[in-house]
Each structure stands twice: as structure tokens, then as C-alpha cells.
Predict the 3D structure of the following.
Amino acid sequence: MTDHVKVEVEAGVMTITLARPEKKNALSNAMYGVLADSLEAAEKDPAIRVVVFQADGDSFTAGNDLQDFAAQASGAFTGERHVGRFLKALAHATRPLVAAVQGQAVGVGTTMLLHCDLVYVSPDARLSTPFVNLALVPEAASSWLLPARVGHARAYAMFALGEAVDGATAVAWGLANGSAELGDLRTRARAAADQLAKRPLGALTITKRLMRDAEKIAELMDAEGALFGERLKTAEAREAFMAFMERRPPDFTKVG
């Protein structure tokens, strides 16, 4: 579907690499399709025991491609939206998920990490969930998972003020397991994945199921998704996207 996501399988580990560095790995609908297909395939293949997410370039991902958002907001988008499939695949994943995160991890780039079992960040990592800045609301069940992880006050500042969290803070807050210099980041994540691949998969699967309420997470994703879709059609969202395209600050007072 796209050359912007690379998928490799070796020694029981599926490695999914976001490969759109010229756009800070902003996620297009086609990229979401590959991500969803890959996670669904991993669930069906007994030879795949762990999944690793990583990215080329200086950013993990800038989040959703805002041109896709703008197309949805204007009604110009047609066809199947794959982001929902990807999020549901995260919710129901039984395989351990590992992430190696450098640079910007915006929006879904951060919320997807809440579904990963092991996360490693570089010191320059910047995790942010600036949904309100775009007149939108949290997604990927992050309205529950993020406050549960870091507390209400910190989560609200990330959602409502768009405050970014650096690599050291992400580790301190429990958003990441550890930090590694950029040159060692993928090696650190792969070493953890290799260790998991050697563990008994049945025990890992049950442990993950006991630690996560997949059905509750999926239900919350649906509720958030419905509100997210409604928000995309609002005058506030149109102003946010127009301001982005015109490279100016949005003025929400004129649409309030």
C-alpha cells in the first residue's frame, strides 16, 4: 500500500519501521493500513512472538498527516479510514509490543506508546498530545490510559496545553522504560525484543491479558473516535487546519 512503512521479520521479531523521514514520519491513511495489516498478521502467525516499532530520520512521528485531517474536515476524503483498524489492533494485541522513540512523537505517536509493553526513548525525544491545539480530543483510549499512567494534572497539561515531555521526564513519569543515546536506541529495543522472544509466549500472553482490559480499551476508543470525528467537522477544527496551512496562529475567538 505504501513504501513509507517497512516490515521485516527475523528470529521471531517483527520490526515495523516508519520510513517517511522527509515528512517527520507523519502518518497517512495508507501508512495506517500497513500498520494495521502488520499487527493483524502478527496475531495470526505463531512464528512472530514480538513486534517492534521504530522510525527512520530524526523523529518517531509527527502524528497524523494534517492534510489527511483537513481532507476529512472538508468532506473531501473518501474510502476506508485505517486508523481505527490500527488502534483496535493495538487494543487487542496479544504479542509484546516494543518501541524505540527518537525526536518528536506527536499525538498518536505518543498515545500508541501507551499500548506498548516496553518503550525506550532517546534523550532528544519529545512526547506530546496537543489535540486541543487542533480543536480535537484525545484518542487511542488515551483519555483513560494517560491519566492512569502519569496522573490527572500531568495528563491534562499534555492534552489541553500541548506540553511536551522530554526523554528523561518520560522515563521518570513511567511513559518509558529507559533511555538510550540515538546510536544505541534501536539496539536497546531489539535486545529487549530478543529477550521477550525467548520467553514462553503463553505466559507472556496471559500476563498481558491480566494487566490490560482490552474490551474496555476498545470501547473507549469507539467513544473517543465518535467525538473525534464530530470535532473534525467543527468550525474550530476548520480554523485550526486553515491556520496550519496558512502558517499562522489560529484564532478560535472568531469561531467560539
About this structure: The first helix runs from residue 29 to 44. The mean pLDDT is 95. The longest strand covers residues 5-10. The domain at 5-182 is CATH 3.90.226.10 (2-enoyl-CoA Hydratase; Chain A, domain 1).
